[in-house]
């Protein structure tokens, strides 16, 4: 067993899944669970978090058995722009609506990488806007406006 964990990508990926699942269980611990036939608001977060924890443990154990090294460097630009794009998405959902928030999220996320191509990102954001609007707003009936004021 290789215990060099500082640069083991499988170990860190598994730890991320485990920590996300544990954090979600901690947040949802006071929600009523219900049962499989009568699900409460805590049922889905708890079950999904349990699955994340199990997958995280499996991936961590695989990483401890065989070492797959992390290659490349940390991108400071991505570490700053990606969280900011998610926060901006949340603010724009309230201020501008679903479509402007989604387009800004796609553009900022793409700008955090080195291979940003404007036309490709524009086509991707238009495709995702149409597909997401159809699925979430019209299909599921979520109470978000496509564009604020319209």
Unreliable residue runs = none
Overall 3D form = flat
* E-strand count: 0
Kindly estimate the percentage of residues that lie in beta strands according to DSSP.
under 5%
Mean pLDDT: 88
In DSSP terms, counting alpha (H) and pi (I) runs of 4 or more, how many helices? 5
Largest sheet: none
Distance between the termini: 60 Å
Total number of domains: 2
Give the structural class. mainly alpha
Rounded radius of gyration (Å): 20 Å
Order of helices and strands: HHHHH
Question: What are the main properties of this structure?
Answer:
150 residues; mainly alpha
Concise synopsis of the structure shown:
By secondary structure, this protein is mostly helical. It is about 65% helix and about 0% strand.
Q: How would you sum up this structure, described in words?
A:
- The protein has helices at 9-27, 43-65, 76-95, 98-111, 118-139.
- It has two domains: 9-65; 76-139, no CATH class.
- The longest helix is centred in the middle third of the chain and has 23 residues, at 43-65.
- Helix 1 runs antiparallel to helix 2 (43-65), helix 3 (76-95) packs antiparallel against helix 4 (98-111) and helix 4 packs antiparallel against helix 5.
- The chain is mainly α.
- The N and C termini lie far apart (60 Å).
- The radius of gyration is 20 Å and the shape is flat.
Please render the helix and strand layout as text.
Blueprint: H1 9-27, H2 43-65, H3 76-95, H4 98-111, H5 118-139
Helix pairs in contact: 1-2, 3-4, 4-5
């Amino acid at each position: 067993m290789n215990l060099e964990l500082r640069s083991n990508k499988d170990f860190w990926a598994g730890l991320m899944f485990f920590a996300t699942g544990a954090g979600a269980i901690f947040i949802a611990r006071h929600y009523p669970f219900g049962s499989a036939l009568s699900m409460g608001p805590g049922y889905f977060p708890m079950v999904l978090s349990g699955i994340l924890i199990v997958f995280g443990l499996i991936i961590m154990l695989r990483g401890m058995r065989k070492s797959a090294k992390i290659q490349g460097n940390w991108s400071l630009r991505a570490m700053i722009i990606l969280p900011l794009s998610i926060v901006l998405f949340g603010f724009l959902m309230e201020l501008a609506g679903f479509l402007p928030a989604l387009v800004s999220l796609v553009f900022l996320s793409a700008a955090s990488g080195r291979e940003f191509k404007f036309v490709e990102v524009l086509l991707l954001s238009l495709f995702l806007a149409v597909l997401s609007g159809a699925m979430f707003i019209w299909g599921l009936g979520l109470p978000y406006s496509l564009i604020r004021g319209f």
